[in-house]
C-alpha cells in the first residue's frame, strides 16, 4: 500500500488480496490485483495525488463492475483461463489441447 493510505484502504487491499488468493491466484498476482483496484478507487475518490483518465472517467467502480470485463473482449478468455476451467471440470487430455479445443471442451 502507498504511504499515507487510510485504514479503510488497507482493509480493502487485504480483502481483495485474500479473495484473489482463495480463487487460486498466485500471491504476487493477488497483490497486484489488490493494489491496482485500491489505487483506482483512491483516484476516483480524490485521495490520490494524481489520477489517470480511465480511473476518473469510468462510470462504474471496480467493485460495482465485479469482473464484468474479465474473460471478455474480441477473443474471450485466454487459453490459460480456459485450461484452469477445464482443470476444475476434470477434462481429460486438457494439457495437449489448444485454445479452440479447450473452449469446446468446457462448453463455451
Topology:
Layout: H1 7-22, H2 27-44, H3 53-57, H4 62-65, H5 79-88, H6 99-105
Helix pairs in contact: 1-2, 5-6
Helix/strand order, N-terminal first: HHHHHH
Our measurement of the CA-to-CA distance between the termini, rounded to an integer number of angstroms, reads 37 Å
Q: Provide the structure class.
A: mainly alpha
Rg from Cα: 17 Å
In total, how many beta strands?
A: 0
Low-confidence region ranges: none
Determine the mean pLDDT: 82
Major beta sheet, specifics? none
Helix content: 55-70%
> Which overall shape is indicated by the principal axes computed on the Cα atoms?
elongated
Number of domains: 2
Give the helix tally. 6
The fraction of residues in strands falls at: under 5%
Overall description:
It is built from 6 helices and no strands. The chain is mainly alpha-helical and 108 residues long. The protein folds into 2 domains: 70 residues, no CATH class; 38 residues, no CATH class. Helix 1 packs antiparallel against helix 2 and helix 5 runs parallel beside helix 6.
TL;DR?
With 108 residues, the chain is mainly alpha-helical. The chain has helices at 7-22, 27-44, 53-57, 62-65, 79-88, 99-105.
Offer a few descriptive terms.
108 residues
